[in-house]
Amino acid sequence: MNTLYYGDNLDVLRRHIADESVDLVYLDPPFQSGRDYNILFEEQDGTKATAQIQAFEDTWEWDQRAAASYDEVVSQGGPVASSLEAFRQLLGSTPMLAYVSMMAPRLVELRRVLKSTGSIYLHCDPTSSAHLRLLMDAVFGPENFR
């Protein structure tokens, strides 16, 4: 209770969060926008300073890491594996496939920790919303969409 974890959410979910222990998930993942985001600082008078640091890269590529994530999910079988195989057939080895391959195991883990009476809210933009909706349907079942 009342613990803040810092790190990769997949690792945190797997190591620290018990099955069916979460009432609510609000998920605001990267959007697969293909952009880099920076934190801009302000001077004391409120004007923008030239100083900035990179917050995160929202760019994805099909590489060994993406392939490993894909293979992990596909090896488990079931509807989520089938959805990733269909994405690969439709998309090929693209940045979007890398993105959904990164999201799939996280959604599977979120399903594991979510109580049967729980809710998950996914915040995304049009860049990947259709892909994420299909992936969410594979993980949670299309009948659970509200």
Structure description:
Helix content is 45%, strand content 23%. The chain has 146 residues and is α+β, with helices and mostly antiparallel strands. A two-stranded parallel sheet has the order 1-4. Strands 2-3 form a two-stranded antiparallel sheet. A hairpin with a 5-residue loop joins strand 2 and strand 3. Helix 4 runs parallel beside helix 5.
**Rg (C-alpha, Å):** 17 Å
Contiguous helical run count = 5
- Portion in beta strands: 15-25%
In the sheet with the most strands, the strands line up as: 1-4
Outline the biggest β-sheet: 2 strands, parallel
Instruction: Enumerate the spans where pLDDT stays under 50 for 5 or more consecutive residues.
Output: none
Look at the helices and sheets and give the structural class. Answer: alpha+beta
Coarse shape: globular
Helix content: 40-55%
Mean pLDDT: 88
Distance between the termini: 28 Å
Described by its quaternary structure, the protein is single chain
Provide a short characterization of the protein structure.
The protein has 146 residues and is of the alpha+beta class. It has helices spanning 9-16, 64-75, 78-91, 95-113, 129-140, and strands spanning 22-27, 35-42, 48-58, 114-122.
SSE layout and pairing:
Blueprint: H1 9-16, E1 22-27, E2 35-42, E3 48-58, H2 64-75, H3 78-91, H4 95-113, E4 114-122, H5 129-140
Parallel strand pairs: 1-4
Antiparallel strand pairs: 2-3
